[in-house]
């Protein structure tokens, strides 16, 4: 809840557009009115914001309105509900904290994840890793911060004053670079620490009938499950916010997916080559040579993808057709696949070799 509220506060501060305070001439009545209109409360009569607006309007005129008493009653009701929930949570937590206290849950049949994990070793590892990931408050909070990061990025793009088709395409080209940097930054917190999260209990995995290759590939699949949705969201949503055409949207999605695959491969491979099982917090795992190599190689890969996208973006100035459907499209996709899979496979191979004898 702390991460959700903190992320919501950060997004709210960005959504109110603080730069408008500098750009607005408050001496101009029309500019002031436009500024206030952009922060109008919702007009639904039962929302607390509307009740507060009507109550303040009545108080300014020297009278108590029905909305004022409704707002006071709603505040008291919410305060009473918060007290009941807090008292119940404190009582349950205090009882569970007593030594030897056991809560009887009864017999329950296997759920979906239990049946999914029982069908193979790889799926069992995925289910175990997902459960461990979401049970860790630090890791679960990372997903909230990732969502806030995407919202901040897309919101900032929405408020850029774009005048003219050429300037919009230039901003779209810069977006191709920034989305790779965003994915690389998220990967260092989600993909790189996956192998080190085993912690001191890593010996349990070593005694289990699981090969190093299976362990490595399941980590890679889990990293893709985290990074691919983010890449698709950035690749599809950001061009729509900027107002790019279908041609650049396709290029953006291809570049985003390539960045996600490369970041997942580099993160899992280098994270397996330079593990830190003694880290008390997942944020401490990338602090070392492996994390530095990951960030350097990821940013270098993102920069190379931008160079690779220069020609499709340049050709989009005078063409409305799809670049990927043209004669150069398949060759460009093949080159994109090579420069994406090559560093990912090399990093995974390097991590596989070091997993047996980490230094």
TrEMBL record:
InterPro entries recorded: ABC_tran_2
Superkingdom field: Bacteria
Any one GO molecular function term: ATP binding
Record carries keyword ATP-binding: yes
Keywords: ATP-binding, Membrane, Nucleotide-binding, Transmembrane, Transmembrane helix
Transmembrane regions: 68-90, 140-160, 172-192, 213-237, 249-274, 286-310, 330-352
Name of the protein in question: Putative ATP-binding cassette
């Amino acid at each position: 809840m702390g991460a959700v509220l903190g992320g919501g506060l950060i997004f709210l501060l960005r959504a109110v557009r603080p730069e408008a305070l500098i750009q607005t001439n408050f001496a101009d009545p029309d500019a002031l009115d436009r500024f206030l209109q952009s922060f109008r409360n919702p007009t639904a009569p039962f929302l607390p914001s509307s009740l507060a607006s009507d109550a303040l309007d009545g108080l300014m005129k020297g009278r108590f309105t029905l909305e004022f008493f409704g707002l006071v009653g709603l505040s008291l009701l919410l305060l009473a509900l918060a007290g009941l929930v807090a008292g119940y949570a404190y009582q349950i937590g205090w009882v569970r904290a007593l030594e030897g206290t056991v809560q009887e849950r009864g017999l329950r049949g296997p759920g979906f994840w239990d049946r999914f994990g029982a069908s193979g070793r790889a799926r069992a590892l995925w289910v175990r890793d997902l459960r461990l990931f979401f049970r860790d408050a630090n890791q679960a909070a990372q997903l909230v911060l990732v969502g806030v990061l995407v919202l901040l990025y897309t919101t900032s793009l929405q408020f850029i004053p774009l005048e003219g088709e050429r300037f919009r395409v230039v901003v779209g080209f810069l977006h191709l670079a920034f989305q790779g940097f965003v994915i690389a930054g998220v990967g260092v917190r989600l993909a790189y620490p996956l192998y080190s999260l085993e912690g001191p209990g890593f010996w349990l995995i070593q005694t289990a009938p699981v090969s190093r290759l299976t362990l490595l590939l399941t980590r890679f699949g889990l990293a893709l499950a985290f990074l691919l949705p983010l890449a698709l969201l950035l690749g599809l949503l950001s061009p729509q916010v900027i107002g790019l055409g279908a041609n650049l949207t396709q290029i953006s999605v291809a570049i985003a997916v390539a960045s996600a695959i490369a970041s997942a491969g580099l993160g899992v491979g280098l994270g397996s080559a330079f593990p830190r099982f003694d880290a008390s917090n997942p944020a401490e795992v990338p602090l070392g040579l492996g994390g530095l190599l990951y960030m350097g190689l990821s940013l270098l890969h993102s920069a190379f993808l931008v160079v690779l996208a220069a020609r499709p973006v340049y050709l989009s100035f005078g063409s409305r057709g799809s670049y990927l459907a043209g004669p150069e499209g398949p060759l460009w996709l093949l080159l994109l696949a090579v420069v994406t899979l090559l560093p990912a496979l090399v990093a995974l191979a390097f991590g596989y070799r070091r997993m047996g004898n980490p230094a």
